[in-house]
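[Q] Does anyone have a clean structure-token version of this?
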Amino acid sequence: MRKVYLPLLLAGSAVAAPAMAQTAVDGPFTGPRVELTTGYDNVSAGSDSDSDIANDDQSIDGLLYGVGVGYDFNAGGVVLGVEGEYSGSTAKVDYNNDNGVNTFGFGRVDTGRDLYVGARAGILANPQTLVYVKGGYTNSKLNVLAGNTNETTDTAFKLDGWRIGGGVERAINTNTFAKVEYRYSKYSDANIEFANGATTEDFGIDTDRHQVVASVGWRF
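[A] Here you go.
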């Protein structure tokens, strides 16, 4: 009986070894993913004195919320990926504050949708933890508010810029992960979109955005 079982065990080990090696290389950071994101959002005037929009030391902040998608490839310790995100925020200009209207150069606005597409690269701190940096293109809206109300006028500033950031992702199991990250966005061009769909020519701006967010997601 021993002579029968031993060859079977050896054969089974030979089949399992490549599969285990493949799993070890791929790890938990490979494949398509979706995620939910929330965190702190701050939009403020930048520091470029050449900006066409007033350079005021003012800002608005609020709660960010959004959804993201991506695809990662684990090349044996180095993870490369592409990603996109659609988000919104509660940040808006407070009309009734003690120091007057806080416009940071745009008048009375609230933050509209924010689009991001980019790439990331990271290294494995351990088999379950990824440390990464990211960067890409971002396009955001600031909706113009009407008078002294919170109603939008269907007119918005559309901002173009770039984003960089970094974070730490932790694999909870093979299909679930959580992460925290900081990202900084710089917007340098904008136009105004009116209710009828018409837009102005692009003009220069100097607007910064700082976000600290947490995400939970799933891989397929």
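[Q] Thanks! Anything notable?
[A] Residues 1-25 have pLDDT under 50 and may be disordered.
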